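Q: Structure tokens for this one, please.
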Amino acid sequence: MTHTSSAGTVSSDAPDRSERLRAALSLLEDSEAEGAALKDAQAATLNDLEDAAVERAFLLDAQAALLNILDDSAMDRSNANDAFKASLNILSELQDEKVLSAARAKQLAAANADLEESNSELEQFAYAASHDLSEPLRAISGPVSLLAHRYQGQLDADADEYITFVVEGCARMQTIINDLLAYSRVGRIEDTARAVDLDALLTSILAGLREAITETGAEVSVEPLPTLHAEATQLVSLFHNLLSNALKFVAPGVPPRITVAARPIGDTVEFSVTDNGIGIDPAYRERVFGMFKRLHSRDQYPGTGIGLALAKKIVERHGGTIDFEDAPGGGTRFWFTLDLREGS
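A: Here is the predicted structure, written as tokens:
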């Protein structure tokens, strides 16, 4: 229905339009709120996706690290297996070596036993032979010496020369026999070990060498020596041989100058006999200590070639060592060690 007035015409639909407008505005506000909510939801979703991506990357890194660990573990296990196998091989080789060492030790012990038995038999043979040879030698040397004493100069020159050869040959043979007996007695005949005053022992030895010292014009200097536990008779033989060599092996016309000294080294004493003699080539180090080994002819320097072999045997029986070196200023320095401890 339409009403007409002086103010003009008014539509009856105006209130409805206002309501619709308000409703539309309300819907628009709701729509904007929903859009904002959607944007917030979208942003949250994006954040969740980013976090998921980070977590996935972390998981991938963790997976890769785990794979690497597994690879390393597998490699370590392989290396451990190889090391275990190598250890087993080494143990097997050591076991084989132990068996071989035991066999070698057994063989060595048997060889040493055979060697000791052989040496013992040789020493017994040398003792018996030298002892048995002495009697027939005396049967020869006695009458020949008597012939030389009674008929020297009464026969022709050839007879005198022959008698001299026989007498000298018998004397040389007796010296060899005596040296062999002395060598065979070392270790075969037990001497009582006791405290030995070496100063007194050297005084006695030098008294026995007085004639040779006087003839050669030698000067012998003996430094203070210790007292030690040893077999006295063997020490007499040891020092006597070294001093005799020092008096003998000098250049013609040169008076021997000999020094006997000692110095402690721990539980041992190093003794030395130093001379101004002709010296010894180091190339003959092994030879000079051998039985019947000579570096010079008998015409140059008499002797049997047993003295240093005897000295070595005595020193080794007492647990020591013996050797030589060039002496300062020329000559030779023989040195040997003996143990200071009682019962050694």
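A few notes: Residues 1-10 have pLDDT under 50 and may be disordered. The first strand starts at residue 3 and ends at 5.
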